[in-house]
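Hey,
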Amino acid sequence: MALDPKIRINLDRSVVLLVQQNSQAMDALTAMFRGFGVRKQFKAANGAEAMHVVKTQELDLIVTDSHLPDMDGYDLVHWLRREGPDNARFTPVIMLTGHAARTMVEKSRDSGANFVVSRPFTPEILLQRVFWVAKDERQMVVADGYVGPDRRFKNMGPPLGVKGRRKDDLSTHVGAATDPNMDQSDIDMLLKPMKAQL
């Protein structure tokens, strides 16, 4: 899906935290966000450094790798959503992963990440996700078992085995996966905000 040329978002004043242990990958991320117009970037090579930045800086976006040397990116997001500073708990998070199995995407979602981007990705794909995060209107949910963007999508149909109330309800049955990794469009559909249909 190409970027809509009518979309205009100025990222000049945005503050972004990039969390990545691989220095080459960090250089590529830094260059991408500089190209997007983001001037103020903080970098962290592990979860502890990222936590320090979250505690000391006001951020507009966090982009983290799913695998860090001292903790998983999932644990970092889990900490942010449940124990992070009050002013940072709901900072949008984009999770980067090289292994996009459905279980990993669900783990990212369940930890409270807003979106997942699988490697390899182009700057255009990453910029699309940044735009999605900027336009995301989902409320943040705080519950005993979950803190993060509202995951309830009212147009997904009834649970498996339950008769729907509407004749056009869709089944939630997906079937067995044929490939261990999901492609980026499948990941996007799993995490894409959708308007509730009443």
